[in-house]
Protein backbone atom coordinates (compact mmCIF):
# COMPACT_ATOMS: atom_id res chain seq x y z
CA UNK A 1 0.00 0.00 0.00
CA UNK A 2 2.94 2.32 -0.54
CA UNK A 3 1.04 4.44 -3.05
CA UNK A 4 -2.21 4.57 -1.06
CA UNK A 5 -3.94 1.75 -2.94
CA UNK A 6 -4.80 -1.85 -2.12
CA UNK A 7 -5.06 -4.51 -4.80
CA UNK A 8 -7.88 -6.97 -4.25
CA UNK A 9 -8.48 -9.81 -6.65
CA UNK A 10 -12.15 -10.79 -6.97
CA UNK A 11 -13.76 -13.86 -8.49
CA UNK A 12 -17.02 -12.21 -9.51
CA UNK A 13 -17.23 -10.93 -13.07
CA UNK A 14 -17.55 -7.18 -13.64
CA UNK A 15 -21.09 -7.65 -14.92
CA UNK A 16 -24.25 -6.04 -13.53
CA UNK A 17 -22.45 -4.85 -10.39
CA UNK A 18 -21.44 -8.36 -9.24
CA UNK A 19 -17.79 -7.45 -8.69
CA UNK A 20 -18.79 -4.30 -6.79
CA UNK A 21 -21.08 -6.32 -4.51
CA UNK A 22 -18.34 -8.89 -3.92
CA UNK A 23 -15.87 -6.11 -3.10
CA UNK A 24 -18.27 -4.60 -0.55
CA UNK A 25 -18.90 -8.00 1.05
CA UNK A 26 -15.18 -8.80 1.15
CA UNK A 27 -14.26 -5.47 2.74
CA UNK A 28 -17.11 -5.73 5.24
CA UNK A 29 -16.09 -9.24 6.29
CA UNK A 30 -12.41 -8.31 6.48
CA UNK A 31 -13.11 -5.18 8.51
CA UNK A 32 -15.75 -6.77 10.73
CA UNK A 33 -18.54 -4.41 9.69
CA UNK A 34 -21.82 -4.68 7.80
CA UNK A 35 -21.75 -4.47 3.99
CA UNK A 36 -23.96 -1.38 4.04
CA UNK A 37 -21.12 0.44 5.86
CA UNK A 38 -18.99 0.09 2.70
CA UNK A 39 -19.94 2.49 -0.08
CA UNK A 40 -18.37 2.92 -3.50
CA UNK A 41 -17.82 6.64 -3.93
CA UNK A 42 -16.04 6.48 -7.29
CA UNK A 43 -15.15 3.96 -9.95
CA UNK A 44 -18.35 1.96 -10.07
CA UNK A 45 -17.61 0.85 -13.65
CA UNK A 46 -13.82 1.07 -13.42
CA UNK A 47 -11.10 -1.31 -12.22
CA UNK A 48 -9.99 1.38 -9.78
CA UNK A 49 -12.47 2.01 -6.97
CA UNK A 50 -12.75 4.52 -4.16
CA UNK A 51 -14.68 3.37 -1.12
CA UNK A 52 -16.00 5.03 2.01
CA UNK A 53 -16.01 3.02 5.23
CA UNK A 54 -18.50 4.14 7.87
CA UNK A 55 -18.00 3.50 11.57
CA UNK A 56 -14.22 3.02 11.56
CA UNK A 57 -11.35 5.48 11.64
CA UNK A 58 -8.79 5.45 8.87
CA UNK A 59 -6.28 3.96 11.34
CA UNK A 60 -8.68 1.11 12.20
CA UNK A 61 -9.31 0.36 8.52
CA UNK A 62 -5.61 0.32 7.70
CA UNK A 63 -4.73 -1.84 10.72
CA UNK A 64 -7.42 -4.39 9.89
CA UNK A 65 -6.47 -4.52 6.21
CA UNK A 66 -2.79 -4.95 7.09
CA UNK A 67 -3.60 -7.76 9.54
CA UNK A 68 -5.75 -9.52 6.95
CA UNK A 69 -3.06 -9.06 4.29
CA UNK A 70 -0.35 -10.48 6.56
CA UNK A 71 -2.54 -13.45 7.48
CA UNK A 72 -3.28 -14.11 3.81
CA UNK A 73 0.40 -13.90 2.89
CA UNK A 74 1.44 -16.35 5.62
CA UNK A 75 -1.27 -18.90 5.09
Spell out the blueprint of helices and strands.
Layout: H1 18-31, E1 38-42, E2 50-53, H2 58-74
Antiparallel strand pairs: 1-2
Written account of the structure:
The protein is of the alpha+beta class and 75 residues long. The chain has one domain. It is 41% helix and 12% strand. It has two helices and two strands. The chain has a two-stranded antiparallel sheet with strand order 1-2. A hairpin with a 7-residue loop joins strand 1 (38-42) and strand 2.
Total number of strands: 2
Largest sheet: 2 strands, antiparallel
The arrangement of helices and strands along the chain is HEEH
The oligomeric status of these chains comes to: single chain
Level of helix content?
40-55%
Q: Calculate Rg over CA atoms.
A: 12 Å
Low-confidence stretches: none
Class from helix and strand fractions: alpha+beta
Inertia-based shape: globular
Kindly estimate the percentage of residues that lie in beta strands according to DSSP. 5-15%
Concise summary:
This protein is an alpha+beta fold and 75 residues long. The protein has one domain. Helices cover 41% and strands 12% of the residues.
Q: What structural keywords apply?
A:
75 residues; 12% strand; 2 strands; alpha+beta
